[in-house]
Structure formats: C-alpha cells, structure tokens
Design a protein that fits this description.
binds adenosine-5'-diphosphate, 19% strand, Ribosomal Protein S5, domain 2, nine-stranded mixed sheet, binds magnesium ion
C-alpha cells in the first residue's frame, strides 16, 4: 500500500463544511457517539456485501467471514475501525464522504437557527453519520476498496475536517473499509481497550456482525468478539432489555432519540417470520412527502435484502421503522416480485394489525405525543385502507366544540358517547384554521342546544370525511351543507319553512342577490348572526374549493345559499325598509358580511366599503 498515485485535493460541499463546524463545536459533551456511527456504517457495508454476494459469490474472494475489527494505539493516539464489507470506489468515496448524501440534511439545515446552543441540541437529534469522526479526531484516513473491483483499485481519503479532503489511488488494498482516527489530544482516552469495549457494549451490542477487539489479556493473541453478534430480532423477547431495543432502533432509523414504543412478533405456522416495528419518538423531516420511502428493512433468513420495502407497510404507516425477517421468500426476491406476492401480502396484513394494536395500546400521554407527530399521516389510512377503516377511524382525534381546544383530543367514540337524545349524526365543520372554525356562525344553534361539533382544519380532513361516511353506524354530516336536521326536528313539516320563505323580505332579497347566491332561505342555524352561507347538499364546500385552488386545480364555480336570521334586528329593519335603494344596499351588505364572516373574499371589496360608509354616515346623521 505504499505506492500512491493520482492524488487530488477537493473541497467539501458547502453543507458539509457547515455540518463539520457544527459537529466540531457543538457535540463536545457527547463525543463517544463517534464509535456508534462508524460501527453502524461498517455494519451497513457488511450487510450490503452479504446481499450482493447472493448473486455473485465471488465477491467474498478468500475472505467470507464478515466482521468488524476495532484496534487502538495509545502511543500513536489512534483508533482504527475496519470492516470487510462492500467498500467504496474512488467515485463513491468522493460523493459519499465529500457531500451530504443523507436525505433530510437540507431540511435539517433549514431548521438551524444560528444559535449555537439550540443548534447543538438539534444536531444531537439529527445524527451526523460519518462526520462524527471529527468530534474526536483532527485527522481521519479512510482506506477502502470496493468488493467488485480488483485489489489494485484501492483508494485513500484523508482529511483534517477543515474544508478539504485528499483522495489518492493505492496499488494494493484489502476489500472493505478501514478508518483510522488520529485522536485530538483531549480525546486520548478513547485509545483504550476498556473504554472502547464499554462503548461497543453500550451502543453497538445489537449489531449482527461480530465486533472484534484484541484481548485485554496481553498474553493472548486471539481476538475476542465484544458484542452479542446475533440479530436482535431473533432473540427471544424476554431476553432483550429495553436499552437494546432502543439502541437497535437508533441504528436502523438513524434517529438519536428513543422510540415511543415498539412491537416484536414471531409468527410461526403456515408462514414463519419475525417483525419488529418501532413508533419513532420524533417526526422525520420528510414525513409529509408521500413519496418518501418507508423505513422498514426486509431480511430473508437473516440476510438483509432491502431498505424501505414499501410493500410491507401501507403509506399511511410510513412513519414506522423496523425490520421484517422471513424464511418464506426467496433470497433473490426483488421489488417487482414483492409487488405481487402472497407471502408479503399476508405479512403486510398482519403487520398493519400489529401496528394498529400497538397504537391502540399507547398510554394517553404517549398517544397524545404520537398524534401530534403523526396524526395527519395516520388519517390517510381512512382513505387508503378500506379493510381497516373503522379501526383507523377509532384512533383519530379532532378538535371539537366540546372543549374548544385547538389540540385535537376528541375521538369519534368520545363524541358518540356525548351525543344528545335523538341525535342521529356526527356533526362536523371544515375550515381553514381553528380560529375561523371556532367562531363560525354555523355553530350558533349547535352551541345554543349543546350539540357537539367536530372542528376539522387539516386539509386531509376534507378527504377523510368523503371516505368515512359512517362511524359506528352514525353518518358524518357537515353543518355547512344543505338542510339541517337537528335532533327532534327531523320531521318538522316543510310547510313551515315554505311560509317563512314566502315572506316578502326573502322574495325581495332573492331578487337583489340574484347571480350572487343560489337562493335565500330562512335559517335554523343562527341565533346571533344575521346571515350565513350554506353549501347546497351535493355541491363542493368552500374549504375544499380553497384547498384545490391553492393546489393549482381548476374548480367549477358554485353558488351557495344565503340563510338569514329573520329575528335579527338587521333583518327586522330590512323587512321594514320601504326605500328600494336603501334595501338593496342593506341586503347586499348582509350578504357580504356572511362572506367575510367565514373568511371568504369579496369580489367587490371597494363596493362593500362604499356601502358600509353610506350606512355609517346615515346612522350618524
Ligand atoms: P448514512 O450512514 O446515514 O448513509 P453516513 O454519513 O454515516 O451516512 O455515511 C455516508 C455514506 O458513506 C454511507 O451511506 C456509505 O455509502 C458510505 N460509507 C460510510 N462508511 C462506510 C463503510 N465503512 N463502508 C462502505 N461505505 C461507507
Ligand atoms: Mg451512517
């Protein structure tokens, strides 16, 4: 390995420089994590090699025993982490160690505040991967050779972590990757057998590959395996301490925080498989990206097959992390095969049930945390998963007029438990935000009669209510649509309305507002407000229209119904108004107010201002 050639010095991508500065300055109090990160990478590299070797056994060369070796030299102040995994080519090294390959990193930088204290907390949550080496080292040398390239294709990457790195070709290199950390003076403590063993047991015990170190007994030359070195999920549940589950979760999810909960299942019988699923303790950066990959790893007979096996879980559970290991798939299974495969369908159906069970079993406090992070995603399940719709619906939480709190706490089951005598439907209203939902005039009669209404303000809620027509046999009904049927009033003779609607003021208003509204009717919804707008039974609601428009979709214009409160003083005044010109002004303002009250936009805002001023001046006179 002495002859080198083709030396090139390159600059880090600007984000890497920023990350390195942050790492070096702010992770000081948590330095020991460097080892976990580098072992995690070594373990990934070994799993990749094992997988690639399934189709190309020659990759093992003469070295089929896959392992991670840790060495140290107290005098030279170095720690070495070596794996005989998949390794890297020159191009791989430049792109993997010179740029930030990890998804979410850009978003992560977006969240940085520039304030060192908060940022160091953030970075602790985010994880820094390979660059963690620079927390303890002022110089890092990576020697690597990719498994499918000849021994002469070795590369050495060197950097002091200050903005540039050097790559050079080696004449001769072993398969895999060796990382030498030249420790900073104040990190000398890590070049110690006991210290390193302690860290391996603490953070990397669950790693399936053996992690070997020299014996602590100087007489012995044989190396010793320091970790348990069995795939964690294959151990029996009773034997696995919580900390092992937690550190395993951190390894597979690249998360730095503990998971909220997990479920570990061994299925035996027609199909044999093990699954271990975690609910993360915090939301990943790309959660709302529906195309983001799922964090479930698929293993076949302990061999890692693929990351993000999206066939295992539906999209609405994309926040889950975990592994599935089965004997019942072929080792050469591909994504295409998985797409129509009975075994995976069975595992998927059972996994969904396990996860829903896990969520149902969370304590109120944990469920609250869970809902705050992932509730919006879980709601998609009502739309996506017909088979489990009722079960998913049972987990949903909404804001409601019961407590008027913005934090969604009310389940549909809670709601049904509070329904009034004779109440047949679950009432809801959708709006752009909580404030406008809470103060909507449509709620007046419900508040007056103590009937609870769910306040839905997530865009996805519009789709939820289109798919969830019933819950527990009760229809869901928008209070912004069509005729209201309140408990005890369903059979109120229509004739009564007819007479009211024939009242002359309604006729006159219809004439004035023609072209603006579909109709004018007397309202049962209002107690305090003079008027509100209602969407006809089968027309698209305003909130949905707004969402579709803001997503760039064309929405056909619909006209709505103006409901008026004949008992309101303004309407009484209108009824008595003889002057046709003043009637037109006042009727128009009543309509315009209704538009404004629900957060809508006026077509003729200037006209409204003029009309208002006319009325103000008239009243002042
Ligand atoms: P992550 O592990 O999340 O991908 P890292 O910063 O830890 O991010 O590593 C960056 C990339 O460098 C890895 O994705 C991998 O491609 C490459 N890499 C790091 N260490 C090794 C290794 N020991 N063997 C092979 N490739 C490695
Ligand atoms: Mg890593």
């Amino acid at each position: 390995m002495s002859t080198v050639s083709n030396t090139e010095t390159l600059g880090f991508q600007s984000e890497v420089k920023q990350l390195l500065d942050l790492v070096i300055n702010s992770l000081y109090s948590n330095r020991e994590i460097f080892l976990r990160e580098l072992i995690s990478n070594a373990s990934d590299a070994i799993e990749k090699l094992r997988f690639n070797a399934l189709s190309n056994h020659d990759l093992y060369g003469g070295d089929p025993e896959l392992a991670i070796d840790i060495d140290f030299d107290a005098e030279a102040r170095t720690v070495t982490i070596r794996d005989n995994g998949v390794g890297m080519s020159r191009e791989d090294v430049i792109s993997n160690l010179g740029t930030i390959a990890r998804s979410g990193t850009r978003e992560f930088f977006g969240t940085l505040s520039g304030d060192a204290r908060t940022d160091s907390q953030l970075i602790g949550q985010f994880g820094v991967g390979f660059y963690a080496a620079f927390i303890v080292a002022d110089k890092v040398t990576v020697t690597t050779r990719r498994a499918d390239l000849p021994a002469s294709a070795g590369v050495r990457w060197t950097s002091e972590g200050r903005g540039e790195f050097t790559v050079e070709d080696l004449e001769q290199a072993a398969r895999g990757t060796e990382i030498v950390l030249h420790l900073k003076e104040d990190a000398a403590e890590f070049a110690d057998n006991w210290r390193l063993r302690g860290l391996i047991r603490k953070y990397s015990d669950h790693i399936a590959a053996p992690i070997r170190m020299p014996s602590t007994d100087k007489e012995k030359t044989e190396r010793e395996t320091v970790n348990s070195a069995t795939a964690l999920w294959l151990r029996s549940k009773q034997e696995i301490p919580e900390e092992d589950y937690q550190s395993f979760y951190k390894h597979i999810s690249h998360d730095f925080e503990d998971p909220l909960s997990w479920v570990h299942t061994k299925a035996e019988g027609k199909l044999e498989y093990t699954s271990l699923f975690f609910v993360p303790g915090r939301a990943p950066f790309d959660l709302y990206d529906r195309d983001s990959r799922h964090g479930v790893k698929l293993y076949v007979q302990r061999v890692f097959i693929m990351d993000d096996a999206e066939q295992i879980l539906p999209r609405y559970l994309r926040f889950m992390r975990g592994v599935v290991d089965t004997r019942d798939l072929p080792l050469n299974v591909s994504r295409e095969i998985l797409q129509r495969n009975k075994v995976i369908d069975t595992i998927r159906a059972a996994s969904i049930k396990k996860i829903l069970g896990l969520l149902e079993g969370l304590s109120d406090e944990d469920f609250g945390k869970f809902w705050g992070m992932f509730g919006r995603v879980l709601k998609e399940g009502v739309i996506e998963d017909q088979a489990n719709q009722e079960r998913v619906a049972k987990l949903l939480r909404f804001a409601s007029t019961h407590d008027d709190l913005e934090t969604p706490k009310v389940s549909l089951t809670d709601y049904i438990g509070r329904m009034k005598e004779g109440q047949k439907a679950i009432y809801y209203l959708t709006a752009e935000n909580f404030t406008s939902a809470k103060s909507s005039p449509h709620l007046e009669v419900f508040r007056a009669r103590g009937i609870e209404v769910l306040l839905l303000t997530d865009p996805v809620d519009e789709w939820v209510v289109q798919h969830l027509l019933n819950f527990d046999g009760k229809p869901l009904k928008s209070i912004l649509h069509g005729n209201l049927e309140l408990p005890g009033e369903e059979d109120k003779p229509a004739a009564e309305d007819e007479t009211e609607e024939q009242s002359p003021v309604i006729e006159r208003m219809r004439a004035v507002l023609e072209g603006k509204v579909k109709s004018v009717k007397s309202s049962r919804r209002l107690t305090n407000s003079p008027a509100c707008l209602v969407t006809d039974e089968f027309d698209m609601g305003v909130n949905l229209q707004r969402i579709l428009k803001s997503a760039g979709q064309e929405v056909p214009p619909t006209q709505r119904i103006l409901e008026i409160n004949l008992e309101h003083p303004l309407l009484v005044r209108l009824t008595e108004e003889k002057d046709e010109e003043r009637f037109v002004t006042l009727a128009t303002v009543v309509y315009e107010q209704a538009v404004l009250a629900e957060g809508g936009r006026l077509e003729d805002a200037a006209g409204f201002v003029r009309r208002m001023n006319e009325l103000l001046l008239a009243s002042a006179a």
